[in-house]
Every structure is written in C-alpha cells, then in structure tokens.
Design goal:
single chain, 122 residues, 4-stranded antiparallel sheet
Length: 122
C-alpha cells in the first residue's frame, strides 16, 4: 500500500506559478511511476506529467508531459524525502482543476491522493 498526500494548491493569477508536492508513505524507490493528473467537473481525469524509474538510482527519470503543459510544467522527485514535485509556471485559466498525485507500482497497481485544488483566476 501507498498513501499519497498532496499539498501546494491554491489560487493564483494568470501567468503566476505554483509548486505542488506529493509525499508518499513509503520509499519511492519501490514505485515504478509517479505522476500528476488533473480533473475538472464533467471531464475525465487526464495525465499532466509523469516520471518513471530509469534504473539509474538517481532522482532523474524518464519524464512525460501533456502537450498542453509542455515547457511550462516540470515534474521532479526527491527520493530522500519520498516526494514528487510539480512546478507549474505561466499558469493559464484553463489549468484550473483538482490535481491528483498517482503512484503506479511495479505490480501495476495504482494509488491516488485526495487531490489539491488549483485555481487560476484574475
């Protein structure tokens, strides 16, 4: 089992920045992929960014981004803190959503956090 706790959401003006954090209850060395998804009412949850273990034993990994956030968002991880980050820059109104942290184990089991609200508005 993996418990995930997100934080860092809030209200920001267009063009601003936020950093989301996701703290896992166990070492993220044991987790194959960690990612951030987002969802707005009436729509399916969509992948924002993910980082997958590359076998290198470092905090780097293989990253993947949705086209809509490419070059604006950066996902990273810190194994020492069991934490994954999502740095969101140049935020747009359309980035408004509930953001969820996801962990997928090597056994292909998914775990989800409770979500954190991000609102981009002037």
């Amino acid at each position: 089992q993996v418990q995930l706790v997100e934080s860092g959401g809030g209200l920001v003006q267009p063009g601003g920045s936020l950093r989301l954090l996701c703290v896992a209850s166990r070492s993220i060395w044991t987790i194959y992929t960690m990612g951030w998804y987002r969802q707005i009412p009436g729509k399916e949850r969509e992948l924002v960014a993910s980082i997958t273990a590359d076998g290198g034993g470092t905090n780097t990994g293989v990253t993947n981004y949705a086209d809509s956030v490419q070059s604006r968002f950066v996902i990273s991880r810190d194994h020492a803190k069991n934490t994954v980050y999502l740095q969101m820059n140049s935020l747009k109104v359309e980035d408004t959503a509930v953001y969820y942290c996801n962990a997928r184990t090597y056994s292909d089991v998914d775990y989800w956090g409770q979500g954190t609200q991000v609102t981009v508005s002037s």
